[in-house]
Design a protein that fits this description.
single chain; two-stranded antiparallel ribbon; 24% strand; elongated; 36% helix
């Protein structure tokens, strides 16, 4: 029973997080070698080598 409640909570929380619009300010952002952050259609994308 505890597992079912846990899975339900995870599902509800992930659905809530997926429906929120992310607003990021890149003011002062400077990428460093091997790492980059960018907004793509309202989704924060982080890329790095490694």
């Amino acid at each position: 029973m505890k597992t079912g409640g846990f899975l339900l909570a995870i599902t509800l929380l992930s659905t809530t997080a997926a429906t929120q619009t992310l607003q990021c300010s890149f003011k002062g952002y400077q990428s460093i070698e091997g790492m980059h952050a960018a907004m793509n259609r309202g989704i924060l994308e982080l890329t790095w080598h490694g």
